[in-house]
Write a structure and sequence with these properties.
- By secondary structure, the protein is mainly alpha-helical.
- The protein folds into 2 domains: 230 residues, Rhomboid-like fold; 41 residues, no CATH class.
- 68% of the residues lie in helices and 4% in strands.
- It contains 13 helices and 4 strands.
- Strands 1-2 form a two-stranded antiparallel ribbon. A two-stranded antiparallel sheet has the order 3-4.
- A hairpin with a 3-residue loop joins strand 3 and strand 4.
- It is globular and about 70 Å long.
Amino acid sequence: MDDIFTNLRNLFRRGTVLTRLIYLNVGLFLLIRLVEVVCMLFNVRIDGMLQYLAFPASPEAFVWQPWTIVTYMFVHDDVWHILFNMLWLYWFGKMFLDYLSERQLLGVYLLGGIAGALVFMAAYNVFPYFRAVAPFSTLMGASASVMAIVFSIALIWKDGYVNLFFFGRIKLLYLALFTLLIDLLSITSNNAGGHWSHLGGTLFGVLFALRYNRAGKDLTRPLNRLLDWLVNLGKRRPKMRVSYRNTKRASEYEYNARKKQQEDAINAILEKLKRSGYESLSSDEKKQLFDASKK
């Protein structure tokens, strides 16, 4: 048993941000379900346990539990809910990492989830249709975060395609727009809150992609800097030894050599693309080609 937990811990540490996000979602789901099973066996009432992790539609309730704007996007209420969200997170997260960094994936996940929560709260308190149920409504699940990832990569990788059962090869952007249409048609359904949060995540994904495509601006950078500061809070900074090289010729030589190496790498990728097609490229090669096209 110890070996199993050790292996899982090592996989978590060595995994990408995408792997860790999936582990965290699945791990919390299993832990909560295990606690519920044990409590039921001993006839212990656990009604409302998830309300301390779910995001409330009521602003008054949110004031007393502000952490839920983050925790809600890692909590799911049933197996099908988490299964669907994790499959989409894995598929589109892998595409995202072909072109962008792990830090950007984490930022889009968190900020897309926050945007989804805020749109959910706004809709339930602005539209009269929801006001009667707003004090009792809560939001759970990673779907708003996933929608942010879907739309960001769909707009950045405009020529991307996916293969779907029964439908075959379809453009990624068309699939994203189809899911948006479903959400728009479902904003008064039984799961209206979930669909409103999808719209919020979609909105952030679109903004992220537009800013990145047009100005090369990364909307996740401020959040990632904050996370870095929190992670390093209380840690002593190591002393660094700085040396200066006064030889201009040496720096020019290093720059030219590095530039030549990058050009050779891009040329090799282009040759492979011409010979074997885009699907033959690795994730790193796709990312290098994408980065080079932005310069």
